[in-house]
Amino acid sequence: MSSHSEPKIDPEPPVNYQIRIEGHLTGKWTDWFDGLTVSLEETGVTCLTGPVADQAALYGLLKKVRDLGMPLVSVNRTERSHPIASGTSSSKRAQKE
């Protein structure tokens, strides 16, 4: 009998995110956000940036923002884990015309 085992899947590398919230956090909150860099913008926005291990960790960070009661301004992925191949189907279509 041959035994079937699950294929080994390499974990995805962390992806960098930028989470912007309305208001300024004091220095005491920096450790609470799992090592993200906390920067204060002149516009009154706090920007949290850095690598996030996976979607579960991202949702955990967003829950912390919610628990602070500070309005969420934006969440942006700042780096892709896999680059997009050059040439999309729309650009190939344009080349044919």
What is the string of SSEs from the N terminus onward?
A: EEEHEH
Shape designation: elongated
Q: Ends: how far apart?
A: 56 Å
Mean pLDDT: 79
Quickly give the structural class.
alpha+beta
CATH architecture of the domain at 15-77: 2-Layer Sandwich
Strands in their spatial order, largest beta sheet: 2-3-1-4
Helix content: 10-25%
Structure commentary:
This protein is of the alpha+beta class and 97 residues long. It has a domain at 15-77: Alpha-Beta Plaits (2-Layer Sandwich), CATH 3.30.70. The chain is 23% helix and 27% strand. It contains two helices and four strands; from the N terminus they run βββαβα. It has helices at 55-68, 89-96, and strands spanning 15-22, 37-40, 45-52, 72-77. Strands 2-3-1-4 form a four-stranded antiparallel β-sheet, covered by helices on one side. The longest helix is centred in the middle third of the chain and has 14 residues, at 55-68. It is elongated and about 55 Å long.
Short synopsis of the structure:
The protein is of the alpha+beta class. Helices cover 23% and strands 27% of the residues. The longest helix is centred in the middle third of the chain and has 14 residues, at 55-68.
Output the keywords:
single chain; 97 residues; alpha+beta; Alpha-Beta Plaits; 4-stranded antiparallel sheet; 2 helices; disordered C terminus
